[in-house]
């Protein structure tokens, strides 16, 4: 191997061969492969390599560019065969790194080539698989939408329960809320609402029913309080 500068070459005994030390880009044609989960697809890639030892490149391998291409094709099939479809689509960096390691192993030491980078360009899926993935993605989005809607309804019900407890402590809050609702409905429809019963009358009936329930409990119709004396039986039943 000659270094840069003026060098003497014997015209008959010596023969000079130029080898490019720059990074070379070779495209790997589309290859049909089967993934680990038995999905048939077509993959193409790009390999970036450069010569690090010109002597090995010229002596140990014939047409090294074609040899790198063949190694890349066979390695790509083997790597895809060990990878499932989800990993190939979502974790492309892992697949590229594994391809670089597999291609670089047989080319660096014996051939004097260094594989700098391997990139998977495109993954072509069958039409049936594309439709299945579309239905799966749609079902996943619908599931998320239902979960979010159910969570929102649950939180709204909790808030309404807390609001009803707070309003039950203040009797006038229900009447104010009713009046506010009436104002909102009347303003929205631009109409007049007629209440069939006054709110005070409804509250009167509610209080009356509570009083009757309290009187019925005090007369012995409800459960007896603790410590109360039992009712006396008639004399005839005591004699018997």
UniProtKB/TrEMBL annotation:
Gene3D superfamilies: 6.10.250.2090, Band 7 domain. Transmembrane segments: none annotated. Residues 215-240 are annotated as: Disordered. One of its GO terms (cellular component) is plasma membrane. SMART domains: PHB. Residues 1-137 form the Band domain. Residues 222-240 have a biased composition (Low complexity). InterPro entries: Band-7_stomatin-like, Band_7, Band_7/SPFH_dom_sf, Stomatin_HflK_fam. Belongs to the band 7/mec-2 family. PANTHER family: AT06885P-RELATED (PTHR10264:SF19), BAND 7 PROTEIN-RELATED (PTHR10264). This is Band 7 domain-containing protein. The lineage of its organism: Bacteria, Bacillati, Actinomycetota, Actinomycetes, Micromonosporales.
């Amino acid at each position: 191997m000659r270094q840069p500068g003026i060098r003497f070459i014997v015209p008959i005994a010596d023969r000079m061969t130029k080898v490019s030390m720059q990074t070379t880009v070779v495209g790997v044609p589309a290859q049909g492969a089967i993934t680990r989960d038995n999905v048939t697809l077509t993959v193409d890639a790009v390999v970036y390599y450069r010569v690090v030892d010109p002597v090995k490149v010229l002596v140990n391998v014939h047409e090294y560019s074609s040899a790198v291409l063949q190694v890349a094709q066979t390695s790509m099939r083997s790597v895809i065969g060990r990878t499932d479809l989800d990993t190939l689509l979502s974790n492309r960096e892992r697949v590229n790194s594994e391809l670089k390691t597999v291609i670089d192993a047989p080319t660096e030491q014996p051939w004097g080539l260094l594989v700098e980078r391997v990139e998977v360009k495109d993954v072509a899926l069958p039409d049936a698989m594309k439709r299945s993935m579309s239905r799966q993605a749609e079902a996943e989005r619908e599931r998320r939408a239902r979960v979010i809607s159910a969570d929102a309804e649950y939180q709204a019900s909790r808030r309404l329960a807390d609001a009803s407890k707070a309003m039950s402590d203040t009797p006038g809050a229900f009447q104010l809320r009713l009046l506010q609702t009436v104002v909102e409905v009347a303003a929205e429809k631009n109409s007049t609402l007629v209440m069939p019963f006054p709110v005070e009358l409804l509250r009167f009936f509610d209080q009356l029913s509570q009083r009757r329930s309290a009187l019925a409990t005090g007369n012995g119709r409800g459960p007896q309080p603790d410590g109360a004396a039992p009712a006396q039986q008639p004399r005839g039943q005591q004699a018997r």
